[in-house]
Amino acid sequence: MKTIEVVAAIIIKEGKVFATQRGYGDWKGWWEFPGGKIEPDEEPRAALVREIKEELDADISVGDLLETVEWDYPSFHLTMHCYICSLNSESMHLNEHEASAWLTKETLNSVQWLPADLALLDGIFLGKLR
Predict the structure, then answer these.
(1) Residue 87: closest CA among 37, 16, 38, 23
(2) Residue 83 near residue 17 (C-beta atoms within 8 A)
(3) Distance of alpha carbon 30 from alpha carbon 23, whole angstroms
């Protein structure tokens, strides 16, 4: 089975976490934490900064690694390195996603999460969200 290695930004602001709705592919319409594939010889934090710039036209500061999720999808294995991040400015533009939302602990389950991203939700709100 093919393995895909990606990074994801857990962008947190004022007790809320940022989520995006996929606008393409097999999982179109499902929600995820923004990010993307790590290029060959690219450091994960640098990949995350690049991906968020490409996807959201935003600049972020990458903090601690929250968790690395290993997940088997039907056609590939996903290794997803998830970092706590903050925005360097309020400016964002959705270049690849259909929608976005700032979610609280109470509204987290109001969207249909991708399975690998869903695995992160408890950890974000159990002492990791600041």
Answers:
(1) 16
(2) no
(3) 8
Which pair of structure tokens corresponds to residue 112? 């249909």
Interval 15-61: pLDDT, tens: 899 999 998 888 999 999 999 999 999 999 999 999 999 999 999 99
Q: How much is the pTM?
A: 0.91
CA-based nearest residue to 99, from 18, 15, 14, 8: 18
User: Mapping DSSP to helix (H, G, I), strand (E, B) and coil, where does residue 124 land?
Assistant: helix
> Domain limits at 95?
3-128
The residue type at 57: D
Q: What is the pLDDT of residues 55-69, one digit of tens each?
A: 999 999 999 999 999
For residue 111, what are its two tokens?
A: 């969207």
Residue 52 DSSP one-character state: H
Angle among Cα 121, 124, 125 to the nearest 5 degrees reads 95
Residues linked to residue 37 through DSSP beta bridges, in sequence order: 6
Q: What are the φ/ψ torsions at residue 81 (nearest 5 degrees)? A: -90, 120
User: What's the domain count of the chain?
Assistant: 1
